[in-house]
Automatic annotation (TrEMBL):
This is Probable multidrug resistance protein NorM. It comes from the Bacteria. Belongs to the multi antimicrobial extrusion (MATE) (TC 2.A.66.1) family. It is found in: Cell membrane. The keyword Zinc does not apply.
Length: 449
């Protein structure tokens, strides 16, 4: 097997670089908040479990635009690719404004309903953090959807550059607000909020100016196109439902982690941040898989799509195993960078070691379905995700963590069983090849609009 594939690496390396900076944005906030106290770390972890549902929803919606654009470009239909970009961006903005208004009105009752059993200091910090970060939802949407569309067009360098800039802004501002101005949790929220707003404005400017392929034109004369929206939401809605149910399931696990106490909540937040950083190559290759498979399917190259997806999945598996082997001996030292509480450090490092030991299961659970979505096979991935999350992760997590009193470790073991189940189902789907008949846009002989 040829391990160095130029087409894959040209697409993946900028995404990996970008993801490193994106994840570091969250990690830096968690580290700095850790020096404010365990209550701040717990509050950020709780609020991020809510914010991440929103972020994941629009990331999934962006997949609809990404797949459609990738397949149009695969056909050489640049005009329709640009039209699809406008439809995805403007429809996404309308939805996000509605969600932002609803969240702003009901943020207090939402925190009380989900995390009412948490310590009152944690609840107070959570109100502050959510109240500021939710106001950036529209800019996050612009950033997420625009980046997804650019990747679908094969441009991974522009999102990378913007993410690097965002993270530099975040580091400078968060450090200033927390360590110099002593603004506490509000400083952490303002740092990440201003960084996100900056990124959204810049990416919008890039699209208005025009990238190599995509350009936002005739904004004043924009009209919704039902046929293009049907294609975009035909992929985006199932992917978004999958994302909502998946992250909603994670939120449920967060609720019963809250009942385990501040130590468990803080350890879970820290372990989640570290695990996400360790998994940057895997998450990046998910994005590459969607774009590459979409391009191939647009050209009618189902065999090449399967070959690329198998290669990317194997590459991700070996990369994650290598990272896990390096990380395990240093788990305690890494978690101690976030906080000084020894009990939290021990618990966070324990679940991270469990996670690292089982990481070979991750790629078939997440990289494979990312490629299947690129082909348009979103309904199967939706059903499989529901089975894994709701029948296994939530149920077993509660049984092991709460009923059998394994605590946070039990919750993470439930997650690993979820990986095993969904990975098996995705592997069966991939081997049978039914996903190859799910092309979103039928191959056309003309590129006229």
């Amino acid at each position: 097997m040829k391990w160095i594939r130029k087409d894959v690496f040209n697409l993946a390396i900028p995404i990996i670089t970008e993801q490193l900076f994106v994840i570091s944005l969250g990690m830096i906030n968690t580290m700095m908040a850790g020096h404010i106290g365990a209550e701040a770390v717990s509050a950020i972890g709780m609020v991020d479990s809510v914010n991440n549902i929103f972020i994941a929803f629009f990331s999934a919606l962006a997949i609809g635009g990404m797949v459609v654009i990738a397949q149009f470009i695969g056909q050489g239909n640049i005009k329709k690719a640009n039209a699809a970009m406008q439809q995805a961006l403007f429809s996404g903005l309308i939805i996000t404004f509605v969600i932002t208004i609803i969240m702003f009105i009901f943020q207090g009752p939402l925190i009380a309903m989900l995390f009412g059993s948490a310590d009152h200091k944690v609840i107070s910090n959570a109100h502050t953090y959510l109240g500021i970060t939710l106001l950036t939802y529209p800019l996050i949407t612009i950033d997420l959807i625009s980046n997804g569309l650019l990747r679908g067009a094969g441009d991974t360098k522009t999102p990378m550059k913007i993410s690097i800039f965002m993270n530099i802004i975040n580091v400078i501002l968060t450090y200033t607000f927390i360590n110099i101005l002593h603004m506490g949790i509000m400083g952490a929220a303002l740092g990440i909020a201003i960084a996100r707003v900056s990124g959204g404005i810049i990416i919008l400017f890039v699209l208005l100016r025009g990238s190599k392929i995509l350009k936002l034109t005739n904004v004043k004369g924009f009209k919704f196109d039902k046929s293009l929206l049907k294609l975009i939401f035909g992929i985006g809605i199932p992917a978004s439902i999958e994302s909502l149910l998946f992250n909603g399931g994670k939120l449920i696990t967060q609720i019963y982690i809250v009942d385990m106490g501040t130590v468990a909540v803080a350890a879970n937040a820290i372990a989640g941040s570290v695990a996400t950083m360790l998994n940057v190559p895997g998450n990046s290759l998910c994005i590459a898989a969607t774009a590459l498979v979409g391009n191939h399917m647009g050209r009618g190259e189902s065999k090449e799509a399967g070959s690329d997806l198998a290669y990317i999945t194997k590459l991700s598996t070996f990369a994650l195993i290598a990272i896990a082997l390096i990380f395990i001996p240093f788990a305690g030292k890494v978690t101690s960078l976030f906080i000084t509480n020894k009990e939290i450090i021990h618990l966070a490092s324990t679940v991270l070691i469990v996670n690292s030991a089982c990481i070979p299961l991750w790629s078939i659970s997440f990289v494979l379905p990312a490629g299947l979505k690129g082909a348009g096979d979103v309904k199967y991935t939706l059903v499989t995700s529901i089975i894994g999350m709701w029948l296994f992760r939530i149920t077993l997590g509660y049984l092991l963590g709460v009923v059998l009193k394994f605590g946070l470790v039990g919750v993470w073991l439930g997650m690993i069983v979820d990986w095993l189940v969904r990975g098996t189902l995705y592997l069966i789907r991939f081997k049978k090849g039914k996903w190859k008949s799910k092309t979103v846009i039928k191959l056309q002989t003309t590129s006229s609009y």
